[in-house]
Design brief:
This protein is α/β, with parallel strands linked by helices. It is built from three helices and nine strands; from the N terminus they run E-H-E-H-E-E-E-H-E-E-E-E. Strand 2, helix 2 and strand 3 form a beta-alpha-beta unit. The radius of gyration is 16 Å and the shape is globular. The chain binds 1-O-pyrophosphono-5-O-phosphono-alpha-D-ribofuranose and hypoxanthine (HPA). Hypoxanthine binds next to strand 8. This is Hypoxanthine phosphoribosyltransferase.
Length: about 180
């Protein structure tokens, strides 16, 4: 039913799960002797985080931040708002930020600065998607699933006007769906 709104599937469910297994194996190695605090950035990172943590075979603690900068738009407002803060202190912790996409980079830039200010011991980023053409600030992830082209993508956590997060794949919406 939802697929009628999709122009093109960019990344299939199977491709996503294979990549998550690779990322999980790498993170298992890199965090073997640590107890990282994995911070999921709501709401978009929820499906990715849920699948990724099951592939990390070492001790991890989970927490969540809800930040928002897009509202119902397809372009970042540039102003990052904390909707829900962490329950845990990051001071002295190895923080692993889990994101669905880096586009302008402003959301993660804000979170990295915040966690540095709060004295995290180390801060790394794992993102399912990276859209380098969207970048407005100099920011790189430590672990990247897929590069995506210069298009507004939806599915597997990513929304347009709060819809399509529940698609199991990543796709591009048909032009007529956007209400510019
Ligand atoms: O690199 P940027 O340009 O900052 O964009 C990336 C951010 O934008 C989206 O979140 P959004 O603010 O739409 O909230 P959501 O996760 O609740 O959809 C996405 O989930 C990332 O957190
Ligand atoms: O391409 C995108 N799709 C959905 N949400 C987003 N947030 C930043 N970029 C995107």
């Amino acid at each position: 039913m939802l697929q009628k709104d999709i122009e093109e599937i960019l990344i299939t469910e199977e491709n996503i799960q294979e990549k998550i297994a690779e990322l999980g194996a790498q993170l298992t190695t890199d965090y073997q002797d640590k107890f990282p605090l994995a911070v999921g950035v709501l709401k978009g990172a929820l499906p990715f985080m849920s699948d990724l943590i099951k592939r990390i075979d070492t001790y991890i603690e989970l927490d969540f931040m809800d930040v928002s900068s897009y509202g119902n738009a397809t372009v970042s407002s540039g102003e990052v708002k904390i909707v829900k803060d962490l329950n845990t202190s990051v001071e002295g912790r190895d923080v692993l930020i889990i994101e669905d996409i880096i586009d302008s980079g402003k959301t993660l830039n804000y979170l990295v600065d915040l966690f540095k200010y709060r004295k995290a011991k180390s801060i790394k980023i794992v993102t399912l998607l990276d859209k380098p053409t969207g970048r407005k600030v100099d920011l790189k992830a430590d672990y990247v699933g897929f590069l995506v082209p210069d298009a507004f993508v939806v599915g597997y956590g990513l929304d347009y006007a709060e819809k399509y997060r529940n698609l199991p794949y990543i796709g591009v919406l048909k032009k007529e769906i956007y209400s510019f």
